[in-house]
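Supplementary notes for students who missed Thursday's class. We covered one full example, reproduced here. Read the sequence, then the structure, then the short commentary at the end.
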Amino acid sequence: MINKKVSIIGVGNVGSTLAYALANKGICSSIVLKDIRENIVQAMALDISQSANAAKSHTVVQAARDGKDLENSDVIVVTAGIPRKPGMSRDDLLLTNAKIMKSVIDDIKTYASKAIVIIVSNPLDAMVYTALKTSGFPANQIVGMAGILDSARMSHFILEKIGFGAGQIESSVMGGHGDDMVPLPNYSTVAGVPIPELLPKEDIEEIVEKTKNGGLQIVKLLETGSAYYAPAHATSLMVEAILNNQKKIYPCSVYLNGEYGYKDVVGGVPVMLGSNGVEKIFELKLDNKQKELFDKSISSVKELIDTLENKFFQD
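Structure (token representation):
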């Protein structure tokens, strides 16, 4: 981890929590925080740096003054974007965040064109597509964080249902990051035992539905915000896998170029993460029902991409 640099663009709840996690674990030597709110980003850098010093971590945390401070980044995490506001249509949110993403990517292209880029901004899959198209980077260089988070939520609901196996649950979720995600019970286990061997069908169906609505449940309870601890930790796992070339397999949002029968679209699938970003895409064998659900999920992403093609990339 010597001289490993991570930059985080967008220092809201997710970005700041991620920086805190990385700094206190000493995952990298340097963290740069960038946000349009200068006072906030300076305050976060000071607070997190002081936390790292309390933890006796070697990680140095700084606030960026401009895009030049992104230079020599090994990994850049993008959480920048706005949440959907009352009266705002889905297309309004999509196009607004696409403009923000383009601005962010312009800085990355100028100052850190070799960095592996992790997208966390929503709508996630469409923002990964926007980042790829506006950057011109190879597909392995840009990856979206979603599947790890969705899988963690599924693991939580499995634990809630069975009441044992904490720390031994491995869950698998594919597809777009949204209502049409595809939890895969037959690829989910407790200490290696497949979930269908532990729970009846109706309990599994309940877990699947709760997983799909896991983020919405938190939004409703918070009333003015969304989840950030789990998204930040999920992102930190991706950062660590890339910095340390761990070759770990995680479900991530990536560009599909023939995999699963799709081209020029982004979707969540199992991939190997290493120092080159997305080093391999794995194609799971899906049954007919799962294939149908995955098709529906990819179709939802395609609708967003079509909107971008017609209203954003044409400008």
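Commentary. The chain has a mean pLDDT of 95. The chain is about 45% helix and 20% strand. If anything here is unclear, bring it to office hours.
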